[in-house]
Amino acid sequence: MNSPSSPNTNYLLLAAFLLFSQSVLTVSRNLDLKLLRQLNHVGKDDSPTYIWPLPLQYTSGNQTLTVNPNLALFTSGNGGGSRIVSQAFERYKRIIFEHASLKLPTAGVDYDLSKLTILVHSDDEELQLGVDESYNLLVAASNAHSVIGEITIEANSVYGAVHGLETLSQLCAFDYGTKTVKLYNAPWYIQDKPRFEYRGLLLDTSRHYLPIEIIKQVIESMSFAKLNVLHWHIIDEESFPLEVPSFPNLWKGAYTKWERYTIDDASEIVEMHFKLFHIKSAEAFSLSSYEYECSNSVITKIQLLQKIGINVMAEVDVPGHAESWGTGYPDLWPSSSCREPLDVSKNFTFDLISGILSDMKKIFPFGLFHLGGDEVNTGQYLLDFLPVVLITVTTSICRLQDHSMSAKDAYKYFVLRAQEIAISLNWTPVNWEETFNSFPTSLNPKTVVHNWLGAGVCPKAVAKGFRCIYSNQGFWYLDHLDVPWESVYYTEPLEDITDASQQKLVLGGEVCMWGETADASDVQQTIWPRAAAAAERLWSAPESGSSRNSTTVLQRLEYFRCLLTRRGVPAAPVGYAFSITNASEHYLTDVKFEGAYVEEEKPTYKIVTLQKLVSPYGNVFQFFCLKTDTASVLLEASASIQALQDQIEDMLHTLSGKQTTMLTGEKRSNLSKQGIVLSTISRS
Amino acid sequence: MNSPSSFNPDSLLLAAFLLLSQLLLTTSRNIGLHQLNYHGADDSPTYIWPLPSQYTSGNQTLTVNPNLTLFTSGNGGGSRIVSEAFDRYKRIIFEHASLKLPSSGIDYDLNKLTILVHSDDEELQLGVDESYNLLVAARDAHSVIGEVTIEANSVYGALHGLETLSQLCSFDYGTKTVKLYNAPWYIQDKPRFEYRGLLIDTSRHYLPIEIMKQVIESMSYAKLNVLHWHIIDEQSFPLEVPSFPKLWKGAYTKWERYTIDDASEIVDFAKKRGINVMAEVDVPGHAESWGTGYPDLWPSSSCREPLDVSKNFTFDLISGILSDMKKIFPFGLFHLGGDEVNTDCWTSTPHVQQWLQDHNMTAKDAYKYFVLRAQEIAISLNWTPVNWEETFNSFPTSLNPKTVVHNWLGAGVCPKAVAKGFRCIYSNQGFWYLDHLDVPWELVYYAEPLEYITDASQQKLVLGGEVCMWGETADASDVQQTIWPRAAAAAERLWSAQESGSLRTTVLERLEYFRCLLTRRGVPAAPVRNFYARRPPIGPGSCYRQ
């Protein structure tokens, strides 16, 4: 849970507002089901306000206020002068007042709201896990007590203030009738903070290169849903796009010489340089040529840094998923024909990891660093699974014997040594759950366990005192297109964890946008709107979704999806079982989601089962150079099933009294290619 | 063909450059696809899309200064359209963070871009001179520093020149500089057709303004020049019409609308990128949503399409809409639809049936009457009417001779239309309907607007062509990847000389490169090689091989 500390309660201004607003409020409610229903009701009448994700606590009224397109910003507090705040204000002003009609001169119009005060207590701009993201948002109406209405955002950190601006932007909507921006259901008093401190989205730039412009679009859209960690899975077996100055041959592993990131590109993504006037908004916002030219020169002369409150956690996935490293340094491969995992026997391997991490430390200030450690493949599980079959593992690597290590020991050795490197650089290591499943007692106690395979891992990890990130692939793997939004939404990171102190060890969760079938052309519509469903789970109090009153949630989610499209984000339709597909693509018409959705038929579940079969918990090193992407897993699984069928056939023949085994030479060699040699167990 | 008038031959500067460049050229070729391909395979690729009509290139690689300075001359050189475009392309060419760091003391080969625009007339219309010359002179014994020069008759030609320049440059990750390959370059370019359109449909699904701007911006990368805005249809009426304020009650929701200011902003945004906006008001069919605000437009409340031909109110309202739209859409062509009219409601509704009898008209006569009356309204507002081909197929001799016939049903219509002296726009649905997802890029590419038209004077009556992004299954979430990359295939057909498409492998390679260029610029263009359009990539891999 790790909720940030609440804002300073002594603050006089806030107290005054509270007092003031209490007298004005017409409706006062705490977060409960009635509230949701009321929100729903409000949605249906003429003055909708849909906030996504839902704030922790709020009260609203029934006034409709007009907002001045030339809304003026007043800042106070130690952090009020921060450029992060003023730039965020400009960004949201463009969003709230996007319509051309608002850019025309409007002399003589009286608006209810002309002033926004942002009060930020701390001037510490360091962005880290656990930074105070809470904020209060007050919209006081015009009434007998005050001649003009006021909007006030109060936060302890600038990042809380940015969240407050996002919420404010969602309270406003353009009224096409009067051609003004209106703020509905005022007065508002919102007290908000995230439920979890880690609210992540994984992007994979190895399976497909994502251009910088696309990554920036993703980051910007994350801020709309109050997600706060971009988990950048930069490198994998397919390609190595990142520049590493210490080992300049590494990015030879990129797909092409154009599909790369320089260290400056990476820094830019972390720092998120936003052009002060976005290319598209620039002309749209041609209030005056002076302003345009002014901003334009700013773009070219001073590069403006715009932090929008999103951490970037880099991943270097070792020892598996690293084949592409060897393009530049073939010594990293165990042999040129067997290229994964990284060669555990050479010190060079670890020198290189150390070099990569040192270079990356200069780019990624975030406290967590992901070391992967997943899907190191083997046939070991088959051995347990098929006791009737005698399996001989053929191994081509014998060096392990010198260290009296089993392959499993070497896997542990590798992971722990990589952890040490990360820790020596003052990073907290994050590892995929296989490391915890294989050697829980050996892992560094600082380790954050990153769940993915299925349910039940976080409970085990936090019981042992580890921190945990929840990404159950059955629900939060966005590349699983057959997971509809409800499944994403109703997933619970704290499932099966009842002890409060253990609950606090769950940092949060992350939706994973693996890139095998998602590239620049479809990544955004595969992410959205389902990532938003997870974002509300991670931000809002659990009760807000506890009633399976899905019409309300659905209505709000549909509204949020349209909000994304208005802001230029190509978010997919909400109501289909298969994301990024379209109503009338023929192959989908008969399986279109209409509530009659059959869970058992989910291919995802089948793939998960197969993954467990082929690439299970507690594995040893892969000797067979097997790939671990879904397609390879399926291929391997089908080969294994074929092996079983052959075995059964063989046994049947033997049982029926025929002397010779039916396994022909060809079939035998096919099996031994997989590292499996089968022989019949004698009958007796 | 309607090719723009050729360049002012007096231009001394150009003559000087021509002379100079002749001296420097190491390779000289016309549309040399073999060579271009060769360059693609080696270390210094240059893929231009769409291919210019004439060019020569060399074998030098030049570095480009990230602080490239703009010098303008000519009557139109001071235009803000030019300087804003320069800033846009500077951001595109120098997108990489490494280039934004201070880099004192480095010598670049190219530090200066001169844009020479002869005319200061910024009016954007069909047939505006879009030609340009682009010269990249290398450093050598004759000149100490290299120069880049764009010369154009209009600002819109200069915009195309900037686009081409941006495609000559690419970021070199090794040296972290922007390089211009295969210099020196001399490019003389102009479009094959004056009308190179893309239809978008905001009635079947509302497209937010931000998304429309993204589409317009991406059109300029492929040198398309007409956005055919199919604003209204039977499903929804999103546009504000001040004369008849209830019309946009036919919008899906109160948020899915365009104010007249929104529409003006879109027109203005497009103009700055050299793109015309042709509006469509599709009558008398495809208009059910009109009746939400004015139920009198329906023949009856149970039979709602086509618009009631028997009432003068119908035509008063069309007149009101068009008058209001005239203030927003300055483009000379206006699309009046006229397609897929099912007249059953006219013959089955008593008062319309009575009217038909009174006027001694069949339903087909009434259809003609409606279309011609709408044409008159458009013509009285000084618009050239465009109509879908059914109008021509039904009553070719009655159509106003100014009519531009918009083909869609199949092949063979443009030949018939131009034979009768009408102008024609080619949009054969078998190839150029982008909502047909089973049409791969090759079919789009090899479709030919001048098919079956051999007479040169008749060929000139084909204004060009248009790819149509109908919106039944395309909304904000997938419109861009349904448009791209296939619209680019049509864009080259419409821009480049016919011969340029004769080598398939090269075209694919260049198209893949252009698709990746689009993604780099933030446009979610779909993989090229998938048989079905807009499908995700089938597995991991490079953008340049998908």
TrEMBL record, chain A:
Main enzyme class: hydrolase
Record InterPro entries: Beta_hexosaminidase_sua/sub (IPR025705), bHLH95_bHLH (IPR045239), GH (IPR017853), Glyco_hydro_20_cat (IPR015883), Hex-like_dom2 (IPR029018), HEX_eukaryotic_N (IPR029019)
SUPFAM superfamilies: (Trans)glycosidases, beta-N-acetylhexosaminidase-like domain
Family matches, as Gene3D superfamilies: Chitobiase/beta-hexosaminidase domain 2-like, Glycosidases
Gene Ontology, cellular component aspect: membrane
Active-site residues, as the UniProt record annotates them: E375
Transmembrane segments: none
Pfam families named in the record: Glyco_hydro_20, Glycohydro_20b2
Stretches assigned to the Beta-hexosaminidase eukaryotic type N-terminal domain: 51-171
Keywords, comma-separated and alphabetical: Glycoprotein, Glycosidase, Hydrolase, Signal
GO MF entries: beta-N-acetylhexosaminidase activity
Residues annotated as domain Glycoside hydrolase family 20 catalytic: 196-541
GO BP annotations, alphabetical order: carbohydrate metabolic process; glycosaminoglycan metabolic process
Catalytic activities: Hydrolysis of terminal non-reducing N-acetyl-D-hexosamine residues in N-acetyl-beta-D-hexosaminides
EC number(s) per entry: 3.2.1.52
Signal peptide (residue range): 1-26
Family: Belongs to the glycosyl hydrolase 20 family.
PANTHER family: BETA-HEXOSAMINIDASE, BETA-HEXOSAMINIDASE 1
Name of the featured protein: Beta-hexosaminidase
Organism annotation: Salvia splendens
